[in-house]
Write a structure and sequence with these properties.
Blueprint lengths: L1 H16 L6 H10 L8 H15 L6 E7 L2 H18 L2 E7 L1 H14 L6 E5 L3 H7 L5 H6 L31 E12 L1 H4 L2 H11 L5 E2 L2 H15 L1 E2 L2 E2 L11 H8 L2 H5 L40 H17 L9 H4 L10 E6 L3 H4 L19 E3 L16 E7 L6 H14 L2 H11 L5 H4 L2 H6 L6 H6 L16 H16 L5 H26 L36 E2 L1 H10 L1
Parallel strand pairs: 1-2, 1-3
Antiparallel strand pairs: 3-10, 4-8, 4-9, 4-10, 5-11, 6-7
Helix pairs in contact: 2-3, 4-17, 11-21, 21-22
Length: 576
């Protein structure tokens, strides 16, 4: 009798909570069949989607176009969330996916021509220095309070976004809304590192324990150990390092994504250091005017730490990576780990976690028969120039960006879609698909506590205080599209053997200063950069800067290797 009574009460509850508004049935269908789990209850999800339905009424039947790079998170948005959004709101979305270089090119073209190519972009927060200066992107802080107030979700909860500091300009205004976020971390085969025979052999050869490398000396020793001394595990030729070197735009990101700061180039302070950031660009505290990249102007792009960083990248790629890695690009090198023949990677983007947890049946040789990873991720080791208080690595924060060149009605419709795909209704499920967290509430959701053992340390990292040491490109970079393209061309000349690391970085620093000099003239003449364009220092003898407030002076570049137990590391994370 009691069971029948409870069933009857439940049935009544279902009737009570059934949608009583137009579009509610479609919303409930998606909540029940797709948008689980969530940090919201189903009633709260329904309330949030009801707001979207009402706010979207003026734009029903409109087709909008948005653009993002091709990663699993955006594939899910393009294939699934566009369909959900259209059924719920009546707004059709063409969510196009391209390579990151092509996305940056499209953003740059729309800024230069002021023609509306796309109604919104998921554009890396690396452009925050560009957007906050050029003022061609919408200032979202003012937009949400002003023209866009009627289409701003009251349940958006900006404070919940873990990357909001990355998308905030020097003026304290929010210019972009994070959609996906991932770090570059250290990746290693924990099953190999735990083998007693390999541990004993490493300890005998190098004098310290095989473990997670704390510094680059240890990483180099481990790379040599597996490539040169171990060579084969279970009948498979193995290597101690993986990277890429193909002459293409993504080789530039490989370096601007904080490789120089990992070596120790740059100043202390988060997110990006003042006066010198991870690109080597100098900008004094309290100023918004970049003063130069060359050591002779007080920058660090061609200083000892930066040159060391490039030299080690080239050296390790040739000595310890699998054959052909020097010809890989970004998209080829990272999934290559699933072949199961690499011991570690110093520079691994967590955006590829989704592919690395694919089942063994899908050809992934880095999980066991139960689907648990044989690998782990951990904080990146630092180079000999690094000092406590510096950033340690890079975090990508692909973020929604609206432009003033987009007609207001289309901009409003696109803003609705942008908020929908990061809403609390959708975010936990989307994060389970793409594993690129943007909300703190999602990272801490019980479903990720349960799933954490199968994600190789991703959840532990994003719940740890360490995550703040990984930041995107910051505001010292005045115009990302114009300067970023210089990197891959110059670094590519190191890989080809045309230039030495010092020659390549000297040329890169000089070219960056030349481009910034043109920006300075444009800003002085027409305030193109809002008065925050470069104001280059006069050149001096580099000796007047090195070790005296400019680039760091040369240090011992091969200190003793240092490692830490992974289990102790995770314990520290959990203890906060």
């Amino acid at each position: 009798m009691r069971k029948r009574l409870l069933a009857a009460v439940s049935a009544v509850a279902l009737v009570v909570t059934a949608p009583a508004f137009a579009g509610g049935d479609d919303a409930k269908k998606w909540i029940d069949n797709e948008f689980q789990p969530s940090t919201l209850t189903k009633d709260q999800q329904l309330r949030e989607l009801k707001w979207f339905i009402e706010a979207a009424k003026p734009f029903k039947g409109l087709t909008i176009n948005v653009l993002s790079e091709t990663i699993p998170t955006h594939e899910y948005e393009s294939k699934v969330l566009t369909k959900a959004f259209e059924e719920i709101t009546g707004i059709k979305v063409n969510h196009q996916l391209l390579g990151e270089g092509e996305v940056v090119q499209a953003v740059q073209t729309q800024m230069q021509t002021k023609r509306n190519l796309y109604d919104a972009y998921i554009n890396d927060s690396d452009l925050i220095g560009t957007h906050s200066r050029l003022q061609l992107a919408i200032n979202l802080t003012d937009w949400m309070k002003g023209v866009g107030k009627d289409v701003t979700n009251p349940m958006l909860d900006i404070k919940d976004f873990i990357g909001k500091s990355f998308t905030t300009g020097p003026d304290g205004k929010l210019y972009q809304l994070p959609d996906q976020q991932f770090a570059n971390l250290y990746w290693f085969r924990k099953d190999w590192f735990d083998r007693p025979d390999l541990k004993a052999k490493f300890k005998k050869m190098y004098g310290y324990d095989l473990g997670v490398p704390v510094n680059w000396s240890a990483y180099e020793d481990i790379a040599e150990f597996f490539s040169v001394h171990v060579k084969e595990i279970d009948g498979v030729r193995v290597y101690g390092h993986m990277d890429y070197g193909k002459r293409a735009p993504d080789l530039g990101w490989r370096m601007t994504d904080a490789w120089l700061s990992m070596a120790g180039e740059g100043s202390k302070g988060l997110p990006n250091g003042r006066p010198i950031d991870e690109w080597g660009i100098r900008m004094e505290p309290g100023s918004c005017n970049p003063a130069g990249a060359s050591v002779s102007r007080g920058g660090g792009t061609n200083g000892p730490a930066a040159v060391y960083a490039i030299r080690k990248w080239d050296e390790w790629l040739r000595k310890y990576a699998p054959p052909g890695a020097a010809d890989y690009d970004f998209y080829q090198s990272l999934p290559a780990l699933s072949q199961g023949n690499v011991a570690q990677q110093i520079f691994w983007y967590t955006a590829f976690t989704a592919s690395m947890v694919a089942p063994k049946s899908a050809g992934n040789n880095t999980v066991d028969k139960d689907g648990k990873p044989l690998w782990r991720m951990a904080p990146s080791p630092h180079g000999p120039y690094w000092v406590k208080g510096q950033k340690l690595g890079y975090q990508d924060a692909g973020s929604w960006t609206l432009f003033k060149s987009t007609p207001v009605d289309r901009r409003k419709a696109a803003w609705l879609y942008a908020q929908f795909v990061v809403s609390k209704t959708v975010d936990v499920k989307k994060s389970h698909v793409g594993l690129t967290f943007v909300r703190d509430s999602t990272v801490r959701h019980a479903s990720f506590t349960k799933r954490a053992p199968k994600l190789g340390g991703l959840v532990e990292f994003y719940r740890s205080p360490d995550r703040v040491n990984w930041t995107p490109t910051g505001v010292n970079v005045p115009d990302y599209p114009k300067l970023a393209q210089l990197w891959w061309q110059n670094i590519g000349d190191v890989n080809s053997g045309t230039f030495t690391p010092q020659q390549a970085m000297d040329r890169l620093a000089k070219e960056m200063d030349q481009v910034m000099a043109r920006m300075q003239k444009a800003d002085e003449r027409a305030k193109i950069y809002g008065g925050c364009g470069p104001r280059l220092n006069a050149e001096k003898d580099p000796k007047e800067w090195i070790g005296k407030g400019g680039a760091k002076a040369k240090v011992n570049e091969k200190p003793k290797g240092e490692t830490v137990s992974y289990d102790e590391l995770v314990k520290r994370w959990k203890e906060g």
